[in-house]
Every structure is written in C-alpha cells, then in structure tokens.
Amino acid sequence: MSKYCTLCRVNGLTWLVTLAVLGFVLLFDFIIAFKNRKQKTSLRNAIFWVVFYIAMAIIFGAVLPLLGLKQHTGEFFAGWITEYSLSFDNLFLFFLIFSKLKVKPELEELTLFIGILLSILLRAIFIFTGSALVNNFGWIFFVFAAMLIYTAVSLLKENKEDEWKEGLAIRYLRSKGFSTMILALTALSIVNLVFAFDSIPAIFGITKSTFIIITANIFAVMGLRQLYLIIGGYLRKIYYLNEGLAFLLGFIGIKLAMTACHNVGWKKIGNFSIPEIGTNFTLIVIILTLGFTFLLSKYKGSKNSP
User: Fold this and answer.
1) 219-270 pLDDT per residue, tens
2) Which of 7, 16, 66, 56 is nearest to 219 (CA)?
3) What pTM was computed for the model?
C-alpha cells in the first residue's frame, strides 16, 4: 500500500457520520434558500450563517484528535483556510457573472447554492482522481507544482475587471432562449471547474489525507452564499487579493516541488539539501499572508478615501 494512501486510515463510521452531518446541514441550507428564493436574506441572517459555518469548521478541527486524527488537525486548518481564501476569488467572479448576466437579486441565492453544490461534486471528483494519482505516481507533484506556479503568475497578470466574459457555451445557450438562471448556472459550473484545477493541487500540497481534503473543501464552500451577500459588493476593495493568493499558491507550489523531489529520491541538488516544509510552518505562512493581504488592502482603501 502506498505511503500516501490515507483513505483507509479513517474508519467507515467516521466517514459516514461526518458526511451525514455535513449533508444534513447543506440540505437544511438548501431548504432555506429555496423557501426564501423570492426574497433577499437579511444582513443579520447572512452574518449568523457565516459565523455558524466558521464555528462548525473550528469545532470539527478541534474534534479531530478525539477521532484519532490528531496528526491531521494542523493539516485540516491549513487546508480549510487555504481553500476558504481561494473562494474569495470565486466570489468576485460570481459577482461579475451575476452583474453581466443581469441575474435578478431574488434568484441570486438559489443560483449560488446550486452552484456551490456543483462545486462540491466537481471537487470530490478531482480529489478522488488526484488521490489515485498521488498513490501511484509520486512524481505527479511536479505537475501539481507547475500548475500552481503557473496560476500564481497568471494571477499577478490578471485585470480583475476583465476576468469573466461570456464564452461560446453561454452565447450558444442564450441564442437558444435559455433562461438567465440556466445561463448563470452554466457559467458558475465552468468557473468552478477551472478553479478546481487550482484549489485541489493546492490542498494536496498541505495534506495527502482524502478525508481531510474532502472535509476541508466542503467546509470552505459552506456559507459562500451568505458570504457573497455580505461582501459581494466590497470584493473590489480587497485590492491585493490577487497578489496575496499568488504568493500563497506560489509558496505551496514550491512546497509541492520539494515533496516531489523527495518522492523520487532527490534528497539533494549538489551540496544543497532539499528541505521538507512542515504543516505548522505552512499554516503560519498562510495566516500571515492573508493577514498581510487584508491589512495592505485596508491601508490602501483608507488612503483612497476622500
């Protein structure tokens, strides 16, 4: 059995109970979104749900040692925070899609929720595929590292205002008379597919545990609907979001490249020993990067204020 295979280290009951609880919460959230599909959620309710989902993630991470997964606690928090931060870029694109397609405000919540469910499905497919590759091909981390570093460079070159334009699929569906909601869901699915290519390799740079990767991703997308309602219009004010995410992805890409070197037996390059970057150090880098990104953005925002 591959040393990277951690799917079997979590017993079936833990998987069943965890996914059942998360599935129940998502179902409850869907019922609320469907029931209130013709009215906008209040700011107070949106804040409550965002805080609730964040609290759930923190409690889950704290409970991991009780499940015999103490060694994965730091990995979960690092993975969850990384995926959550990457979701901010998703939110900005969601905002652009809804604006350019002129989605009615009362349809935004239900459309977002269905888009989030599609995101979970796509991520699950990518995660299990990625796990199979990791278990059988240690060198695959070189590919993941290249993908992340390429994305990091692309983020630095990106102009946020021009991030999303109608593609062939959207134009075709529009020409056939499909509803705005179908157009928006198609656009969200395409965006989620593209982001899965970035976010999944990123978390493989933090942990190889399929259980941790799945749960971190689910917790990262839970509450995105309410988070969008709170900060959707303020995302442009996170001026250095691209730069912060680029640094984060670049760092994890380099970490993955180092892991790949160890996987293929390259412990040294000349006289230089290739280090292994630990989970705790990774978590510290992630938190500091995001904190610095938001502080710099806030400082620039205060300077630009009249």
Assistant:
1) 888 877 778 777 755 666 667 777 888 888 888 888 878 877 877 777 777 7
2) 56
3) 0.74
Question: Are 251 and 285 in contact, with CB atoms under 8 Å apart?
Answer: yes
Euclidean distance between the first and the last CA atom of the chain, given in angstroms as a whole number: 62
Q: What local confidence, expressed as pLDDT, does residue 55 receive? A: 93
3-state secondary structure the chain: CCCCCCHHHCCHHHHHHHHHHHHHHHHHHHHHHHHCCCCCCCHHHHHHHHHHHHHHHHHHHHHHHHHCCHHHHHHHHHHHHHHHHHHHHHHHHHHHHHHHHCCCHHHHHHHHHHHHHHHHHHHHHHHHHHHHHHHHCCCHHHHHHHHHHHHHHHHHHCCHHHCCCCCHHHHHHHHCCCCHHHHHHHHHHHHHHHHHHHHHHHHHCCCCCHHHHHHHHHHHHCCHHHHHHHHHHHHHHCCCHHHHHHHHHHHHHHHHHHHHHHHCCCCEECCEECCCCCHHHHHHHHHHHHHHHHHHHHHHHHHHCC
The 10s digit of each residue's pLDDT in 154-166 is: 777 766 555 556 6
Question: Which residues are CB-contacts of 182 (< 8 A; sequence separation ≥ 6)?
Answer: 173
